[in-house]
Write a structure and sequence with these properties.
mainly alpha, flat
Length: 49
C-alpha cells in the first residue's frame, strides 16, 4: 500500500521534503545544518498557516 493512499498529497509531499532534507543534513556540518533546520521549520510553519 502506497503512502499516498494512506496520507493526503500534502502530507506525502512534506514527507518527501523532510526525507530529502535529512539526507542533505547528514552531509553538512553541524552549524550549517542547524541553520537549514531552522529555515525548514520556518518554511513548514508558514505552510501550516
Amino acid at each position: 500500500m502506497k503512502c499516498s493512499q494512506r496520507f493526503s498529497y500534502r502530507e506525502s509531499l512534506l514527507a518527501e521534503i523532510a526525507n530529502g532534507f535529512w539526507k542533505a543534513l547528514a552531509r553538512l556540518s553541524y552549524g550549517d545544518s542547524m541553520r537549514k533546520a531552522q529555515a525548514l521549520v520556518k518554511a513548514i510553519a508558514l505552510a501550516e498557516k
